[in-house]
Design goal:
The protein has about 300 residues and is an alpha+beta fold. It has a domain of about 80 residues: TATA-Binding Protein, CATH 3.30.310. It is built from 13 helices and 5 strands. The protein is globular. It starts with 8 loop residues before the first strand and ends with a helix.
Length: about 300
């Protein structure tokens, strides 16, 4: 089966929804060979079980929907692909319900008023996002993207029958990362050990990356692994699965958001304040990150 594009499918959502928010988020983190962005299109490779291929999304002007294009190879897993893309672009959120909750909050109400369409950008693949979170411990987003790009270049498999758009590699598998020589990859030895132990646990099936028992159970499983603390585990729950109440309270961008003034806020103070934002703390984090970086 070739990878020729199929007829696009509409993916509807409840307005407001902001293409520019998602474009900026993925543009900052795009991995060469795996992802490619143009002004009105996001494209990436994917692997679901034994199926690999590519998909792209673009906004539909005048409609509250994204347009999903995909390779012919995706047909056997099209339902799961649509579900993953909907989660990735947070198309099933209920903005009116979340907005009504935050509108009563003295801290978040002004941020919500300025950016009512903010959603929760999420990764397509939970394992990929977990790897990127571990790589990103104590380094900038730019540095983490550079190191993740080296993993792709060194260990990523070629995408069969790529479409020539520049998306031509798959993100490395758990087994590939677990068993690789990562000398010179750009991470401290301890972090390499953390990454490879984590990948080995996923590859062996000892660690299940899912929310079947809730995000708190996943966070607990992750924190039991060497080198993975609360920030990494909460961030994985938030960015890998779109867990609506995940909240990495020690994140620098949350603590230094201009909302708190020049001195910022402590993680303990923020955690206490965030209790009022349940069960939507991940969306509160999105507003605070936007307040911090303008992303």
């Amino acid at each position: 089966m070739n990878n020729a594009p199929q007829a696009p499918l509409p993916l509807p959502y409840q307005a407001p929804w902001d293409w520019q928010q998602f474009h900026a988020h993925f543009a900052l983190r795009a991995l060469a060979g795996v992802e490619r962005l143009s002004r009105e299109r996001y494209c990436r490779s994917f692997r679901l079980g034994n199926v690999s291929g590519w998909f792209s999304v673009s906004p539909q002007p005048g409609h509250n929907a994204l347009s999903l294009s995909y390779s012919a190879s995706a047909i056997p897993c099209l339902a799961e692909l649509q579900q993953r893309v909907r989660r990735m672009f947070d198309l099933d959120a209920e903005p009116q319900r979340i907005g009504a909750h935050f509108a009563r909050d003295p801290y978040l109400a002004p941020l919500l008023a300025r950016n009512p369409g903010l959603r929760l950008p999420t990764a397509f693949d939970p394992f990929e996002q977990a790897v990127r979170a571990i790589v990103g411990q104590q380094v900038t987003v730019k540095a983490a993207v550079t190191i993740s790009g080296r993993l792709v270049a060194r260990l990523g498999e070629p995408l069969p029958q790529a479409d020539g758009s520049g998306v031509d590699r798959l993100f490395p598998s758990a087994a590939a990362i677990a068993g690789a020589n990562l000398d010179g990859i750009g991470m401290p030895g301890k972090r390499v050990q953390t990454l490879q132990h984590f990948a080995g646990q996923v590859a062996s099936g000892a660690l299940q990356l899912d929310l079947r028992h809730g995000s708190a159970a996943l966070i607990e499983r992750l924190c039991a692994l060497p080198g993975i603390g609360p920030w990494t585990a909460e961030y994985i729950a938030l960015r890998a699965f779109g867990a609506a109440d995940a909240f990495p309270a020690s994140d620098l961008g949350l603590l230094k958001a201009p909302l708190w003034g020049a001195g910022g806020i402590s993680a303990k103070q923020l955690k206490t304040r965030a209790e009022a934002w349940r069960p939507w703390r991940a969306y509160a984090a999105t507003h605070l990150w936007h307040n911090y970086s303008g992303e």
